[in-house]
Specification:
The protein is mostly helical. It has one domain (3-59, 69-122): Orthogonal Bundle (Globin-like). Helix content is 66%, strand content 0%. The chain has eight helices and no strands.
Length: 129
């Protein structure tokens, strides 16, 4: 999936303008790369558009940083220049789109390295009738 198509899917899922979806895509992928191992980040990068790969790449194969849900969203919000509620909506859309692009098995391997609350962002939100 090309970068523009990925961002369009994020915008659609989150109900946000394309420019905001672009910022949130970049911020979420960078933050995700900090939180998972370099090997998992590289495996995810192999499945995304060429333009998005540097966001998941790390210069050194250091250990992942350890932080929880609130810090994950704070970093996404700070990087994207958005409010925390928009960051949460955007991160959810990015992770759901990434799941579709990467495939279930590979995605679940990466999510296994995250706290349950962060991984839950990738799950669809049940719609109320």
């Amino acid at each position: 999936m090309a970068e523009l198509e990925f961002v369009a899917k994020v915008a659609e899922r989150a109900g946000l303008p394309a420019k905001t979806a672009q910022s949130l895509t970049e911020a979420t992928l960078r933050t995700l790369a900090e939180r998972i191992s370099g090997g998992e980040a590289a495996d995810l990068a192999d499945h995304v558009a060429h333009e998005l790969r540097p966001l998941l790449a790390r210069a050194r194969p250091e250990e992942p940083q350890v932080f929880g849900y609130d810090e994950f969203l704070r970093r996404v919000a700070d990087r994207a220049g958005t409010a925390p509620d928009i960051a949460e909506k955007g991160a959810r859309a990015v992770l759901q789109t990434l799941h579709r692009v990467v495939g279930h098995a590979e995605f679940e391997q990466a999510m296994a390295e995250l706290p349950r609350e962060i991984g839950a962002l990738a799950q669809p939100v049940p719609r109320t009738p």
